Amino acid sequence: MYLKRLELTGFKSFASKTTFDFGQGLTAIVGPNGSGKSNIADGLRWVMGESAGRLIRAKKLEDVIYAGSAKRSRSDKVEVTLVLDNSSGWLPVDTEEVAITRRGSRNGDSDYFINGRKAKLRD
Question: Tell me: the pLDDT tens digits for 93-110?
């Protein structure tokens, strides 16, 4: 099992859907200061259920939703999906990919999904 893909939509500096494909082995994300490298790590933590704001550099859910810019309006929702390769059957599901999604909105609602089906954090 390995991390196959991370999809961020409306998360911090990622206004549009942004997909990071990871291959087997080591992956490095590099870029200049302010390019969003740490937001990728925050997105990974957030989708896995992190609720301590200081660990994802946010005080409330609204802080992780894209705030807008001079050229683009703010987003009303956020969605992060973590896709794991399950071809070895490590996870007890009958699919070769497992997609874990967390969605949130400005009103404070946050929901979890596993392969598109609503789930609870402990699942």
Answer: 889 999 999 999 998 889
Q: Which of 66, 90, 67 is nearest to 1 (CA)?
A: 90
Candidates 62, 86, 73, 81; CA nearest to 119 is 81
| pTM listed for this prediction | 0.90
What is the residue-wise DSSP string for 40-78?
HHHHHHHHTT---GGGGT-SSGGGGB----SSSPPPSEE
Q: Nearest to residue 38, comparing CAs of 14, 60, 17? A: 14
* Tens digits of residue pLDDT in 48-66: 998 887 888 888 878 899 9
